């Protein structure tokens, strides 16, 4: 990796950490960046997961005030995210590389669509709800999102925000704090699994880890002031670039 490529990956990590804390689609920045510097897709995915774990943790720490009074929700939802992250990581490691090449462009497209339609999701998320303790389907839905996050993870945060918004009675900022914790659990679980059983590009993972940690704190502190439409446009454009790169 050249110095230019290293700076490129570092900046992608910062952008991803910032976006993950606010929106939850940072993989759409870092994964294409790793592909662009020549890292094979599966190795790029596992290295990306390892690198983003500290950044999601930074975002969760930055939202610690919004987590006050949500201990019960964390106790019920964290195990689902933990199990989902492990299952998703195992699927990534056991399914053939051809499956990853076939599925990931579809997942990226799904992530782009979720980000593009986030204004409509936000209307649902912001709607008042009488479900104080959560609908019955929230835990299995969080588990399923964890599986997705452990396997690839682009737009995992958007999925979580939609689930929490439709199934819980809470405001947007408190749900965002909860989302950051659950995403941290998924990323950390799958990252530990990958470190134990798979090769990691430690230079790429380290650059993303440094960048995403910085970005996580930036996103938690200042991200709410950024124009959402600009973030969505950037993510969708980079996601389309990733699809074109993988398909062609």
From TrEMBL:
Transmembrane segments: 74-95, 102-121, 141-168, 180-197, 203-222, 229-247
UniProt topology in membrane: Multi-pass membrane protein
Keywords recorded for this protein, A-Z: Cell membrane, Membrane, Transmembrane, Transmembrane helix, Transport
Top-level taxonomic group: Bacteria
Name this polypeptide is given: Probable membrane transporter protein
Keyword flag Transmembrane helix: yes
Family: Belongs to the 4-toluene sulfonate uptake permease (TSUP) (TC 2.A.102) family.
Native source species: Kribbella pratensis
Location(s), subcellular: Cell membrane
Main location: membrane
InterPro entries tied to this protein: TM_pro_TauE-like (IPR002781), TSUP (IPR052017)
């Amino acid at each position: 990796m050249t110095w230019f490529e290293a700076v490129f990956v570092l900046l992608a990590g910062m952008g991803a950490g910032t976006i993950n804390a606010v929106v939850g689609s940072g993989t759409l920045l870092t994964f294409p960046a790793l592909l662009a510097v020549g890292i094979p897709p599966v190795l790029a995915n596992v290295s990306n997961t390892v690198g983003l774990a500290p950044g999601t943790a930074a975002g969760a720490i930055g939202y610690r005030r919004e987590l006050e009074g949500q201990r019960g929700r964390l106790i019920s939802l964290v195990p689902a995210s933990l199990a989902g992250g492990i299952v998703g990581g195992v699927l990534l490691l056991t399914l053939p590389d051809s499956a990853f090449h076939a599925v990931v462009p579809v997942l990226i497209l799904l992530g782009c669509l979720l980000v593009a339609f986030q204004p409509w999701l936000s209307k649902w998320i912001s709607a008042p709800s009488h479900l104080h303790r959560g609908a019955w389907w929230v835990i299995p839905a969080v588990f399923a999102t964890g599986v997705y996050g452990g396997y690839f993870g682009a737009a995992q945060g958007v999925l979580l925000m939609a689930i929490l918004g439709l199934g819980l009675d809470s405001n947007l900022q408190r749900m965002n704090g909860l989302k950051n914790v659950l995403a941290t659990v998924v990323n950390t679980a799958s990252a530990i699994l990958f470190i134990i059983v798979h090769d990691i590009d430690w230079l790429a993972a380290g650059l993303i880890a440094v960048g995403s940690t910085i970005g996580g704190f930036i996103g938690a502190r200042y991200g709410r002031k950024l124009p959402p439409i600009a973030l969505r446009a950037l993510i969708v454009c980079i996601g389309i670039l990733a699809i074109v790169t993988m398909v062609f």
